[in-house]
Amino acid sequence: MFTSYFIYFFIFAGPTEGLTIASSEYIFPNTCNNITCYYESYIDQRTTTYVVVANGNSIFSHNILQKLSSNLCTLDGKQHCNDIGICLCDPNGLSTRICYNHTSGGEGQLTLRCESNKEQMETFVTIAAIPSNVYPNNTIYRVDEGSNFGPLICNASCGPPCTFRWVGPTSIINSSELFINHATLIDNGIYQCEATNKMGTSKGHIVIIINYGPNQVILSPNRTSYTFDENIDVPDITCTADCQPDCTLTWIKQTGQVISTEILSLKEIQRNQAGTYQCNASNDFGNMVSTDVTISVRYGPSRVVLSPNETKYEIKENESLQTSISCTATCQPPCVGTWTIHTGEFVSYDNLSLPAIKRNQTGFYRCNISNIVSSMTSMDVSVIVTYGAEIKGLTIDGENFTIPENVETRLACEIDGIPKPNGRLFYNEEEKQISGNPIIYPLVSSCNDTGNYTCAAENSIGKANQTKELFVLCSPRPVARLQSRIAVGNDSILNISLILFSYPQPKISWMFSKNGSYEKVRSNDIIGIHQHISSIYITDMKTSQYGMYVLEATNGIPNDFKHVFEVLPQRQPDIPTHFSASCDAPNYANLQWIPSSDGGDTQQFKLYYAVQDRQIVFSKHREDIKEDENELLNFERVDGLLPATSYVFKLIAYNTFGESNCIKAYCNTTKSGIV
């Protein structure tokens, strides 16, 4: 309840020789305020001076002249009071009155004075004003929700007296006391303290703030679930709450991570930022969390993991991988792995097993792992299926393995196997130093190429071979050089034996001729496929058996073979043939020759040399050089020669029956330092 009081009263100054002054307690500006002077007795003519003093300065001064005898009442002796209405004279001469209109001056109090017949009387009055110094004003009060507030007294400086009231957000209280019982949010707001008197109303303002905790946490946008691809900017999510004082707003992840801001801002979101978030609003008066906000981050594979972490496997054919190869990656949503071989053919999902593997499954396998975001391919996994060596084929140019002589052809052997097998080619049991796959053996067919050709292959898993027989069509011919003269002792054994090449098989005949007559000689023949042996054997040679022994062999191929052996009694050797010297160095020479008939006895050779440009005197080199029965040629080296010198060499064959004539050869040694 607000209450204002207005009090009206008069002030009478005490008499001084009969003079008094009267006025109201308050001077109201801009209105007629009556000031009255009273006299104890009258006189016919009286002048009364009215003075108003403010702050020591006269702001109003007028004289009222009253003359009873003439019924005269004037203001300052000029205007009749009845005419102007601002002054009045008592007809009995006991008082006069003047109207004072206060417009300005003074600081709340005035001095009123009246003077008459050298007497004066003064009194003090207050200038009426609207209330001032309203209290409380411009003040903030904080009240906890549910608690009591007050009483708070509204006061003011009032003249005339005031009545008071409180005007609140929802109610008016006609009292100077403000009291709030069990404060609620509706009590929050601005309150006006109003002080009212005759001059008007003045107001003081206060603010009552109700302190309260959050009762709702609001999210904007109002969504609780989001899904984004990694590295995408997430739209800001703003958290607000109605609190007093303002709440501290923080975002909290389920892992306990705290983001100290009301805005959840996730730029270029990463997979580790996925999860459940809550906004926490708190102040000293309460705490509340928002509904859960679930943020899912989709991302493709960044690394393909193979287990076991091997990139090369060797598996025997028809066996299986010891363990499946799994293909995984960290993805969201989960990835699916697809295994393909290098040809692009699909193999399996997720795990690569390869049971009972076949050789055509050798290759590079790779796993492509993907989801709706992206995909990635693993490194290549090399799978090698091993198997033993195999012969794919042994072939020859042409239709079959029977070919004419002097034809350019080639044998080819294709081998297979993992690991790569070592291939070898054999002619009969002789290995040909040939490599490669296929193994290629070129040849110009000759009679002695007939035989078994075997292709063999071997690796760590196994081995294989294949043999085919090659037949070269050729007329009969000896395998080795045949002597034309054979010397044997009387009563000794004559044994002539030779090997012939021939395909197809030959017909062989021996004839003996002496003094122009021929007779057939019985022979011992061993006929093979392409190699044949023919021999005659006489155990006790007689003089009548020395002569010509003729061998003939035919097989239907042009150029039949015929050879004559002259069988003689034992004697000295024949002269060696094809004797030559080579001096390709400054201090030695290489010599070679072909031995001739040994005369039916073991022969040896004597070798001599001499400088050619002086009187020739031969020096002995050796006199015990044996015949090399396994080779067509004999070889000998002569050391200790002089450089840049011409030499002559002399060769003699001998046995127990004597010596052959000599044969000579020549050469020039080189200069020193020249090779």
Automatic annotation (TrEMBL):
Residues 1-18 form the signal peptide. Residues 575-673 form the Fibronectin type-III domain. The keyword Glycoprotein applies. SUPFAM superfamilies: Fibronectin type III (SSF49265), Immunoglobulin (SSF48726). It holds the Pfam family Ig_2. SMART domains: FN3, IG, IGc2. CDD domains: FN3. It comes from the Eukaryota. Coiled coil: none annotated. The keyword Signal applies. Keywords: Disulfide bond, Glycoprotein, Immunoglobulin domain, Signal. Residues 136-197, 214-296, 301-386, 397-471 form the Ig-like domain. This is Uncharacterized protein. It comes from Mytilus galloprovincialis (Mediterranean mussel). The lineage of its organism: Eukaryota, Metazoa, Spiralia, Lophotrochozoa, Mollusca.
